[in-house]
Amino acid sequence: MQLPTELIHNELQIFETRFKEAVRSQAPLLDRIMRYIVKRKGKQLRPMFVLLSAKLCGEINEPSYRAASLVEILHTATLVHDDVVDDSMERRGFFSTYALWKAKANVLIGDYLLAKGLLLSLDNNDYEILHILSDAVRKMSEGELLQLEKARSLNLKEDVYYEIIRNKTASLLASACAAGAWSSCRDKATTEKMRLFGEKTGMAFQIKDDLFDYASENVGKPTGNDIKEKKLTLPLIYTLNNVDKEIRRKIIFIIKNKNTDKEKVKWVIEQVEKNGGIAYAAEKMNAFKKEALDILHEFPESTYRKGLQDMVLYVTDRKY
Fold first, then answer.
1. Nearest to 54 by CA among 185, 200, 190
2. How many other C-beta atoms are found inside a 10 Å radius of the C-beta of residue 241?
3. N or C terminus of the chain: which is more exposed, having fewer CB within 10 Å?
């Protein structure tokens, strides 16, 4: 499944220019770091969701481009801070900014990006868009802290897992779709519908990401990494709730005490697959995908609706 970039090719080029302008700094060191970040940006999924949502609900305009830039700025800020929290030396196959400029600079880089995002909206009176995206930042922080708290006890129920990923991952995608819709239609009901579409897509996105931890092929993320970080994701939660006490006790012991032992981690992965954890998570991912597509199909048929449908399918069918 390919990303529908051809639908908004020109708009993405304009966005690129706007984004570079938005993060530019007068401080030489900061500007050098910003250029490094811009050069190594990912697939720009979230700005694409903003722009396609705007097109679905009306016409792309200057607030749409600012919304796309704000989403990418906030996403980048969270990644920069995440690398400090996770002590991560790599990001998308390159040295992370944390590896190159260390923790102190990275925290300041993240803060700088958050400030630039706020000013981008405030300077242009995009108050509703700023409100939509600020709510996402709050939820993302709450999701991360809840995950941190639960990782210590290793006692995570499925509904709590959904709360974590709804806040940590889905909230930004939901806000991207809502901000795009609001920028072009200024209608609260339509904006809320697109927010919900983005949330369902974001839930499917995160479950797919969690499934990669149990994949054998090279997916750009070390297999068993979540186990090493003591993260309880859906495949593992299902397994823990559906095995006998002895296996459950052994899995928990490995996660707590032997999570860097490759053979032990491999055994846990085998138990997850054998006891239906992977199949169950895939089923739940597809259920969220269906909910997202059902919401999307409430809109009239158009090339942009098809483009957003392709985005949903890309999210759930991607190989990395």
1. 185
2. 14
3. C
pLDDT at 100 over 70: yes
Sketch out the chain's domains with CATH numbers.
Answer: 5-317 (1.10.600.10)
Residue owning tokens 């069918």: 317
Tokens matching residue 96: 């992370």
Tell if the pTM clears 0.70, that is, is over it.
Answer: yes
| Token digits of residue 76 | 């980048």
Closest CA to 210 of 277, 163, 260: 277
Each residue's pLDDT tens digit, 159-207:
999 999 999 999 999 999 999 999 999 999 999 999 999 999 999 999 9
Q: Are 36 and 25 in contact (CB under 8 A)?
A: no
Specify whether the CB–CB gap between 97 and 119 falls below 8 A: no
Structural contact between residues 171 and 199, judged by C-beta atoms closer than 8 angstroms: yes
Q: What is the biggest distance separating any 2 CA atoms in the chain, rounded to whole angstroms?
A: 61
Which among 307, 27, 287 is positioned nearest to 162, based on CA atoms?
287
Nearest by Cα to 136 from 233, 212, 46, 45: 46
